[in-house]
Write a structure and sequence with these properties.
Blueprint lengths: L1 H9 L9 H15 L3 H23 L3 H35 L5 H8 L6 E2 L5 E2 L6 E7 L2 E7 L2 H18 L5 E6 L11 H6 L7 H12 L24
Helix pairs in contact: 2-4, 3-4
């Protein structure tokens, strides 16, 4: 009995999740290490609204309560803008650490796309030798194929995928975007924004219909890593 009790007492307790403030500090630290100049953008995002609130309070005059309200609104707006800027910069820093790795595009599809897109973090075609891959997303612009790797590695598989999509969804626009080391490729952190800029061509009902049709094509079953969650990347991980 004594041994069993001591064993129970010796069992490791599960680690507690870091609090919200600690998480924010970790994100801030990761972002600052990736881009030291980013601290000035975050500082400006906070200070400018606060200063504007103080100036408005002094210009407007009035009673003390009005002055306090102007300042408080400026501080709250500064905190909000600071959080927005921190989130954008942290996302960019996190994506930069997984850029070039197999499954990086899948990470963008998993956590960076708007709800209007129907996409999977798994590729639909893979070059078994180089692990270059093609990902597919369906949205208002139609079908978007995103290649991961050099154009030489992905040209054949993306052409095959384009023919398959055109055969099963005739008349639906097909856009090909490239993420890779080529000079004209799209940086990983700009992929979601670039996809959202493609001209809209179909409505929401057609998006669902096209997605269901393409699901019948199936997906490549080669063992390629799933998209890494960029929000879980730590600052110590090499690029």
């Amino acid at each position: 009995m004594a041994r069993s009790k001591s064993a129970e007492n010796a069992s490791p307790t599960p680690a507690k999740e870091p609090g919200r403030i600690k998480q924010m500090y970790q994100v801030f630290t990761m972002t600052r290490k990736h881009d030291p100049k980013s601290i000035w953008l975050m500082l400006a995002a906070f200070v400018v609204p606060v200063v504007a609130g103080v100036v408005l309070a002094l210009v407007a005059g009035g009673n003390i309560l009005g002055l306090i309200l102007y300042i408080v609104v400026g501080v709250l707006l500064g905190v909000l803008l600071f959080m927005i800027v921190l989130g954008r910069l942290a996302e960019r820093a996190a994506y930069s650490q997984i850029e070039g790795q197999p499954g990086a595009v899948g990470a963008v599809f998993k956590s960076g796309l708007r709800r209007q897109w129907r996409a999977s973090e798994m590729p639909v075609a893979v070059n078994g030798r180089s692990q270059a891959a093609v990902y597919r997303a369906v949205g208002r612009p139609g079908v978007v194929l995103v290649t991961e790797g050099t154009k030489g590695q992905t040209q054949r598989i993306v052409d095959e995928e384009r023919r398959k999509v055109a055969r099963i969804t005739p008349g639906v626009p097909i856009t090909v975007l490239s993420v890779g080391p080529d000079g004209d490729s799209i940086p990983l952190h700009r992929l979601a924004a670039r996809m959202n800029k493609v001209k809209k061509a179909i409505d929401r009902n057609e998006v669902l219909a096209v997605s269901n049709r393409l699901d019948s094509l199936g997906q490549n079953k080669l063992p390629i890593p799933k998209g890494v969650d960029p929000m879980r990347v730590r600052s110590g991980r090499p690029r």
